[in-house]
Amino acid sequence: MTSATAAGVPPAPAAPKSRKNVTGTRRTVAALFLLPALVLLGALVVYPIGYSVVRSFYDQSGDGFAGFDNYQALFSDEGIRTALKNNVIWVVFAPTVSTALGLIFAVLTERVRWGTAFKLVVFMPMAISMLAAGIIFRLVYDQDPDKGVANAVWVGVHDTFAQSSAFPKAHPGRESPLTAQDGGFVTKDPVRTGQAVTLPLLGVAPDQMPDDAKNAVAPKAEPGKITGTTWQDFTRGKGVGKLGGVDASELGYAGMKIEAVKDGRVVESTKAAADGTFTLSSKADGARLRLPAGNFEEPYNGLDWLGPSLVTPAIIGAYVWMWAGFAMVLIAAGLAGVPRELLEAARVDGANEWQVFRRVTVPLLAPVLAVVTVTLMINVLKVFDLVFIIAPGSSQDDANVLALELYRKGFSEDQPGIASAISVFLLLLVIPVMWFNIRRLRREVRR
Question: Can you tell me whether residue 184 is helix, strand or coil?
Fold first, then answer.
């Protein structure tokens, strides 16, 4: 027996033959398995980042050292400044709207039987690539209401409250008694009671005539009144029909507004019947007949969604359509872990549903909402596909973002130094957001 044993001190444990982690795997074996992944990570991530940092300090050819000139261009180039401004708009609005919609969908779908089906439909755009979504929304935002869904809906709502003109292309022909004035047309000479007036026009396609239009009827003079006809003075077929005369197959301008103007003011007005005929009283004696501009206004064609002023909000709308489902799924997972006892206790204490949502549900979901928002912020900082596909060439400068400008500088304009500086700048923007997200996740794990 040794002296250490005699003194009552236990012997020191024997040194382990090999160091293992909690799973029982030797660290050397784990390192060997990780080596291929580390090589790929270095080749595909670390090396490109390092090369981009170095390349950002060289000129266009790559031979001359440019110092910080490429980084100065980030704040002096007009295209890059526009891209930076648009990126700020993206970071502020796209994650906020997507997260807010995801929260609303996640909370409301818990209260309906078909909530799972609804979640499936909302999440389905995530299965579509950015390229395909860009093509879809390029068609959705088409200016032509017959092609673009957005303008078809917008024009339909507009025309419900403000009916458009049926004669936008109408105009006087040769030897017409009408002359142009203030967007409309007016008779060259005053009219008198007992006179029959003809107001022939051209330019409206037969399929664009009002549905209630009937064959035009020649006016008949009536004592003490002014009668007339306004009609489409055109008959198909060469040499068919009489110019300035009402022919059997020609249609009247049903609903055409006619005003009698005397001394600069309207003394009487009327609308043409289905056959184009109209009648004015003796008040119109000595007045000139006017077809006001309202008869010939172009039909409302909707909004220019992809124009300079709306192109960025329109593309953000496409992004929200894709990513609101992602936010909804994550928030719904967080909502499933919220203790129902707290919600029921709030209701027992007299809180209504809005108060429960605002004072209980949202605070409990704050960590999840933060993770979703930050994740989407990282995502929108590098958005490229949607902007490149949806924005037409005429508006691409107005919709420009940093990732798109990087592509344009590197490939279209052959300025790899500036493109590398933009990539480094994007990396610097993303790192703080990623650090915040990782720190929050670690804090949640410790809890």
Answer: strand
